[in-house]
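Record copied across here:
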Amino acid sequence: MVPVRLADINWSGCAAVYGRPYRDRVIHLLALRDYKEPELLARLQRDGVRPKDKDSLGKILQQVANLNAKENSFSLKEHLFQTLQTDWPGYSKIERKSLKLILSGKSAPSQNPTSSSQATSPRPSETDAPARPAQGSPSYSEMKSRCQYLHKKLSHIQ
């Protein structure tokens, strides 16, 4: 395991995401790319899941996502892109940039067809390599995993 300095962890980010409604967390993850249910559940669990939310993922997915039966994956319903927060505390800088690109493609598809196809083209490549972190910095999921690990370790000290 890689040693982590306590100063390097964004504790407010952990609490901010964990404190948000489960439905909103699902929506903000699906906005970035398509997920298969086990993959989405794993990502949500790394961020922390309340006991009351554990069994509600299927119901939430029916409300907010479209199922791609061929890929057995879920994508965010189009009308929900309007409700996204670009400053969502669970997003890394790269994910924020990616979301802005996706949203710009969604907001102006009829104005310039080539820009919308370019704006949405990152989604399939992200689906092909979902766990690939950005070079030189830990991924969001790595940071959250470390955060949870350290939180457990420190809770025994206090």
Summary: The radius of gyration is 17 Å. The longest strand covers residues 65-68.
